[in-house]
Amino acid sequence: MSAVFESAVPALAREERIEFTATGGEYFRIWIVNLLLTIVTLGVYSAWAKVRRNQYFYASTRLAGSTFEYHGKPLAILRGRVVGVILLGAYQAALRYHPPTAGIVLLLIAGVMPWLVWKSLQFALHNSSYRGVRFGFRGSWKGAYLYYLGLPLLAGLTLGLLYPLVHQRIKRFQHAESRYGTTHFAFDAPVGQFYKVYGILVGLLVLGGGVAFGVVAGLAGGVAALNGGTADIAVRAGQVLIVFAGVLGWYAFTLCVVWAFMAILQNLIWNHTQLGPHRFRSTMTWPRLAGLYITNTLAIVCTLGLFIPFAQVRALKYRLESTTLVVAGSLDDVVAAKGGDVNAVGESVADLAGFDLAL
Amino acid sequence: MQGDAQREVPGRYYDGITSRAHRVVLRVENGEACLAGEAERRVPLAQVRVSERTAHAPRKLTFADEACFEPDQRAALEALLHATGHRDSAVVRMQQSWRAVVIALGTLLLVLAVGYLYVLPAGAKLAARLLPVSVERQLGQGLLGVLDRRVFDASKLPAARRAALAQAFARMAPPRDGAPPYQLVFRHSRIGPNAFALPSGDIVLTDQLVELLRDDHAILATLAHELGHLHERHLTRRLIQGSVVAAAGTVLFGDASALVAGLPALALDLRYSREAEQEADDYAAAMLRRNGIGLVHLERLFTALQELEDELGAPPPYLSSHPPSAERLARLRQQLD
């Protein structure tokens, strides 16, 4: 009997790494067949395709010997997609036929978006299970309006100064209001840490921008000075080349900074997330993330898109496999939110009749 | 079958109430799935959901109350499923076969090519024809105002000259009936010789083009080309085609990035644009012929554009919204013969 099942013996904290067993080749086959059916049915099948894809990815995600399961129903997803298409279509049509109406439609979309996000958070978690026990989301719709509309507006008014705070609050809302069975997740990343990460991001971008501008301006000026201040074709071409190289270098630098930012943020968020007594640990590194994105993008372009499923599996594999669950005691004690918790949960589940929005 | 039904699959059972794993052995007896070990359960096979077959993810059985069974090893469960006559859906079998996938890929490319080359243009043409002109007219309302602020000044041509051109064009009969109403708009351009039609029905002609052509019949040919755009509902058709191409691009490449999804859509849209130009050229040629004006005047327009292109350097044809003038000239010469 493997260690996983020795629930009776309270063990020391042990680490369970998430394993992702999906392969690009297999997902490619699922992807192509689903793509064909989606195109032939003018998009209607995309809901079924999403269920197939999620079922495959969930079943390929293994933690402590057990895999996850996806329970989403295609019709619920289709309903969500129809709503999304109607909203976007209304906006596009208004934009083309009568721009002032487009503003009203945009306000309308902004008004219902938090509610839709709330619904799809519920949907995504409620339709995921592990060891026969479902996840759930208990956050209220009022919370969704506060964190997805109210605070972002406030951040906009302060020219983004509040944005790290908003990001922390959104993550706290998502994580702390999630549950696995009756066990709740907790989130304790301090706002200060978010400000620090964002500060480093902005600092690096400003510094890098200044250096790039200085080097390019210096070199371009130097080229002109070497030629005695004349502006003939050769000098102009040289300057254009320098500016071009500068822009390219700046672009590469920005991408690296953004990847580093994403890795640090992902680590920050998961290292401060807890499920009951169990902690998560995330060990993403930005060089690996950068290497992953560079090779994925190049391969997608070179294969005219055929690499997309392989790229997705690679990215997901790295993300999932950098996450570890530090198990305190046993994973066997989680109780499904069925028995005593019926009222609170039952209500939202009935309300949930099914709706998914993934734009 | 009797022997097969005796197969035993060891695994873990989760009762759907707690996350505890129960060691059990799965057997199939009399059309029922039977679990024995740390948990006992018998359920008719029809009430058991089997997850889809994949090569790398384990298969599991889920019961109606969300309790589930995960086998320790997939091979044993696979054999049991085979013995009970379980069959995967056609889609799942396709997903597992490389041959079916290659066929699916070929079919996908064929569907996309046929859709892009034939179905979409025909559908957009039909849809544009069904759309009332009044709706189309609202499409570009205000566009001329924006252009007037940014790139145009009032025309510097004498009023008499403008009236004469407008009258001459008004006297010409369109190649087929049902030409939509239009207004001729003369403007002095800050961006060189140009002529274009707006969905609002405005045909804009710049002073620079009038001066460049120096031939009234060539100017009329230009106007006929622009009227062709209006009559064929090109702008509406391109809007429809462009939206569909963009939507398909999002489905195909959406997971990659906006840039990867956007560039092919742009290139595909340009081809539709060049087709529209050819259609408008044909319309202009037919209109000249009907009104007894020689096609040489249309040729004069293309020659002038060709000279302009040679002077400025034109983009390669597949990156251009208009066919190269040399190609348009060659097409026209074929018609002349």
Description:
Chain B: Residues 9-83 form the DUF7092 domain. Chain B: It comes from Pseudoduganella chitinolytica. The complex is a heterodimer of chains A (359) and B (337). Chain A has a domain at 190-254. Chain A has eleven helices and eleven strands. Chain A has helices at residues 24-40, 46-59, 74-97, 99-126, 141-157, 163-176, 191-226, 233-271, 286-302, 308-321, 342-351, and strands spanning 14-17, 19-20, 61-63, 66-70, 128-130, 133-137, 178-180, 183-187, 273-275, 278-282, 323-327. Chain B folds into three domains: 5-87, Roll (PH-domain like), CATH 2.30.29; 97-130; 132-336, no CATH class. Helix content of chain B is 55%, strand content 15%. Chain B contains 13 helices and eleven strands. Chain B has a seven-stranded antiparallel beta sheet. In chain B, a hairpin with a 7-residue loop joins strand 1 and strand 2 (22-29). Chains A and B meet through helix 1, helix 2, strand 4, helix 3 and helix 9 of A and helix 3, helix 4, helix 5 and helix 10 of B.
SSE map:
The complex is a heterodimer of chains A (359) and B (337).
Chain A: E1 14-17, E2 19-20, H1 24-40, H2 46-59, E3 61-63, E4 66-70, H3 74-97, H4 99-126, E5 128-130, E6 133-137, H5 141-157, H6 163-176, E7 178-180, E8 183-187, H7 191-226, H8 233-271, E9 273-275, E10 278-282, H9 286-302, H10 308-321, E11 323-327, H11 342-351
Chain B: H1 2-5, E1 9-14, E2 22-29, E3 32-37, E4 41-44, E5 49-50, E6 61-62, E7 68-71, H2 74-83, H3 90-96, H4 98-130, H5 133-139, H6 143-150, E8 152-154, H7 159-171, E9 183-189, E10 195-197, E11 202-206, H8 207-213, H9 216-231, H10 234-253, H11 258-290, H12 296-312, H13 325-336
Parallel strand pairs in B: 9-11
Antiparallel strand pairs in B: 1-2, 1-7, 2-3, 3-4, 5-6, 6-7, 8-9, 10-11
Helix pairs in contact in B: 3-4, 4-10, 9-11, 9-12, 10-11, 12-13
